[in-house]
Design a protein that fits this description.
With 342 residues, this protein is an alpha/beta fold. 28% of the residues lie in helices and 27% in strands. Strand 15, helix 12 (322-331) and strand 16 form a beta-alpha-beta unit. The longest helix is centred in the middle third of the chain and has 14 residues, at 143-156.
């Protein structure tokens, strides 16, 4: 039987709603050169940056383009010998879905320098009796989500054992992942926010100790729960809640803005002297391929396999359902990471 020469891909053609901008097509399978890896994509997570690109908010991205800043699957070919055929791997960032075609396809071609081997068994892909393994949808949810959570906590916030952490946007996929990772790092108390009731179970399941309903102003309430304020804040909503989040930390505390779930990109008429309270530190996080490679994905995959780290998945769909998946992401109703199986 001859090897396939074409692949199914979700291609972005123009800015607009999912139904008019994304189409399923057959594309040639790319051929790898030295220092490149061809990955048979088995699963990938959806990311808001891809939604912004689809909407036309990424002027540097030319269409047509196969979107997708991450992918998880098996090695189809690595001419340079960096990986063995069939190894389970993950990749993210480094221009995927932006400068070159990304993960919304059955195959993706990426630099070998931005590929991690995961060293786990995948459910249903070996002989019975060898153990349960990890599902592809769990692995597919991990690369960008865990890279963002890990980098925010360790590189920007520098969380320490015994500290208190407020996650503003606690029910986002990154927020839930950050809660679980924070507990493994020894954070004493994780406070997670949600805009509505009914999300307590999912927050608790992922490591949140205290749940706060977020109506836009939390500082006074947080300082009642934690006199003086919390040690660190992971700000995932963005500029709409940033000023209030800066008032939630104690003197010497750090606020890291990582997400823009609130869809407002800039602060208007800002006086930094008034925005940032004295003694409070404000930083941000936006990881790239180096940060992705520094993320211990193999360890996280093994912890997920052992049941020690929960990966909250909101919805699992297939590549043919990419329009529905983007509509769900835009509605903010997934309740966890949206994962596409190919």
């Amino acid at each position: 039987m001859s090897a396939p020469t074409t692949m199914k891909a979700a291609v972005w053609h123009r800015p607009g709603p999912p139904s008019s901008s994304l189409t399923i097509e057959q594309r040639p399978i790319p051929s790898p050169s030295l220092a490149q890896v061809l990955i048979r994509v088995r699963a990938f997570g959806l990311n808001r940056s891809e939604m912004f690109t689809r909407q036309g908010a990424s002027p540097g991205v030319a269409s047509p383009r196969i979107l997708g800043i991450e992918a998880c699957g098996t090695v189809a070919a690595a001419p340079g010998g960096e990986f063995r055929e069939g190894e389970v791997v993950a990749t993210a960032m480094g221009g995927m879905g932006r400068q070159f075609d990304g993960g919304y396809a059955e195959y993706t071609l990426v630099p070998a320098s931005q590929v991690q081997r995961l060293q786990v068994k995948v459910e249903g892909e070996w002989e019975e009796g060898e153990g349960k393994g990890v599902k592809w949808e769990v692995l597919g949810a991990m690369p960008e989500m865990l890279q963002t959570a890990w980098g925010s906590l360790t590189k920007s916030l520098r969380v320490k054992e015994g500290e208190t952490l407020l996650i503003r946007g606690g029910t986002t996929s990154v927020g839930l992942a950050a809660a679980g990772i924070a507990k493994t790092l020894g954070v004493k108390c994780v406070v997670g926010t949600t805009r509505s009731t009914g999300r307590e179970e999912v927050l608790t399941r992922n490591g949140v100790d205290q749940i706060v309903i977020d109506k836009g102003e939390l500082a006074d309430h947080i300082k009642k729960l934690h006199p003086g304020g919390v040690d660190k804040v992971l700000e995932l909503i963005g500029t709409t809640t940033l000023e209030d989040s800066l008032r939630c930390v104690k003197v010497g505390g750090i606020v890291c803005m990582t997400g823009i779930v609130g869809n407002k990109w800039e602060l208007e008429h800002v006086n930094p002297m008034l925005l940032v309270p004295p003694g409070v530190y404000f930083t941000s996080y936006s990881g790239g391929p180096d940060e992705f490679m520094e993320t211990p994905l193999a360890r996280f995959a093994q912890e997920a396999e052992a049941g020690r780290l929960n990966i909250e998945i909101g919805k699992v769909l297939h590549l043919d359902d990419i329009v529905e998946a983007h509509e769900l992401m835009e509605s903010n109703k997934a309740g966890g990471k949206i994962v596409i199986l190919t």
